[in-house]
Amino acid sequence: MADRLPPKERTKIPRQEMPEQDPLQRANNFLEVNTGFDAALAQKEAQRCLQCVNPHCVHGCPVGVKVREVIDLVLDGKYLEAAAKIREDNVLPAVTGRVCPQEHQCEGSCILAKRFAPLAIGHIERFVADYEQRTGQVGLPPCAPPTGKRVAIIGSGPAGLSCAGDLVLQGHQAVVLEALHELGGVLAYGIPEFRLPKAIVQQEIDNLRKLGVEFQTNVVVGKTVTVDELLGEEGYDAVFIATGAGLPRFMNLPGEHLGGVYSANEFLTRVNLMKAYDPQHSDSPVFDCRGRSVAVIGGGNTAIDAVRTALRLGAAHAWLIYRRSETEMPARAEERRHAIAEGVQFLTLHNPIEFVGNEQGLLTGVKLVKMEPGEPDESGRRRPRPLPDTERTLPVEMVVVAIGAGANPLVQTSLPDLQTNRWGYITVDPASMATSKRGVFAGGDIVSGSATVILAMAAGRQAAQAISDFLKDGEWPNVVARGGECESNYP
Ligand SMILES: Cc1cc2nc3c(=O)[nH]c(=O)nc-3n(C[C@H](O)[C@H](O)[C@H](O)COP(=O)(O)OP(=O)(O)OC[C@H]3O[C@@H](n4cnc5c(N)ncnc54)[C@H](O)[C@@H]3O)c2cc1C
Prior knowledge:
Layout: H1 7-10, H2 23-26, H3 39-46, H4 56-60, H5 67-75, H6 79-87, H7 93-99, H8 106-109, H9 121-135, E1 150-154, H10 158-169, E2 173-177, H11 186-189, H12 198-211, E3 214-216, H13 227-231, E4 238-241, E5 247-248, E6 261-263, H14 264-273, E7 293-297, H15 301-312, E8 317-322, H16 333-342, E9 345-348, E10 350-357, E11 363-376, E12 382-386, E13 392-395, E14 398-401, E15 405-406, H17 410-413, E16 440-442, H18 445-448, H19 453-473
Parallel strand pairs: 1-2, 1-4, 2-3, 4-16, 6-14, 7-8, 7-14, 8-9
Antiparallel strand pairs: 5-15, 10-11, 11-12, 11-13
Helix pairs in contact: 3-9, 5-6, 6-9, 7-9, 10-19, 14-15, 15-16
């Protein structure tokens, strides 16, 4: 238990660094990079909190975690109570403590950040979530008495899980239908083991199971069963669509068909679901990167994950090719720093224009052109433009294209009366997440386009509340407006 210091004293404590595996060692294994705070570090960091009367960090968190109260409990050494407090608003604390872009959310709003480093809220969240799991005393909140209402949730990513968790707390039956054999969505098949171990995702899903959420895998809604059947003979009272944006996107460049060119989706899914990260399964038929030169194209989290994965699979050279500058990359700052320390070579302000191959149809290189920042685009960033006469070919044997992804289409194509935008994202009423079809709600990446875990979770929460209201009074909002305004998320 730590004493509350006077505010001036608190600001004298430097932000506590997250311990991590040595970069050169970790570049050769899939063990977690960040090794986590212990109680002493968590206490010391918590002492830095100014305990603001109006805590901006809470407003900065899309699911509204009561950060100030959590920190107070940590200072009292009440770690289990702190974890339970987080669980009131966030069903995946061990996940969000690891992968949230805190610098743009809770920590981005921390008042300390005006003059000092912000409070390491994410690291403290991870510590209490892991502490709770280690002691086996998970503080699951109580559920309301059963209402007898059943809700089908399509997709087991963060949006689906968050919605399911909130629905069971309100006494409804929540059944998650997942197309794949593994649960968790991108948390399971996208984000690599060295950032988010599968065991952590599994443990949070087990917690939801204990709360009463039911899961069915290998159910492809739109093929195995339709939404109309779910609402009809299957007897569900409402449906929440949380199918994500996992459709691979390519650049339509010459040579894209060559052997050795992959989408990030295929690359990461195969590595994750075929367990290439696990030495026990290293004979699995995944990508042989050993001794090869691999280039990944893109600047988002997916690109950084793919290039660091290639490095761990034994690539001799792992290039990251991005058309803007490093500071403009949307990937988390921490991941960029980690990648560079591990030996990833950044080739920024470069863009591919062609993939080059040999007579056997195998990739031998990628033709690149240099870029320069041009006029600002709609996002306010300067649109990169090619510099004439700057072409060169980088010899590589494998390329992973990580330039964003599109809407997963199956549910929409099997449900013609569901309103979508021209890129296939589902349109919803932004207040209630209600779609154009009565009883059907949608949220997460399938509405917003590729975003973040916590935003998907926030959408799941918002939908759970709206579904609960609908189940109570049967009233259907008549405003159906917008959603999924993105065409391409190539950053
Ligand atoms: C490689 C990678 C790294 C990322 N890193 C981060 C990060 O560090 N931090 C962060 O905040 N965000 C990160 N993101 C983004 C984040 O993971 C997503 O925004 C988030 O997972 C979206 O959640 P979701 O629930 O909407 O969809 P998803 O997580 O995509 O889940 C959708 C689920 O629906 C299932 N499904 C699809 N169609 C059907 C169907 N017809 N029937 C049944 N099931 C179906 C899918 O199999 C999937 O399991 C990353 C994304 C990727 C791809």
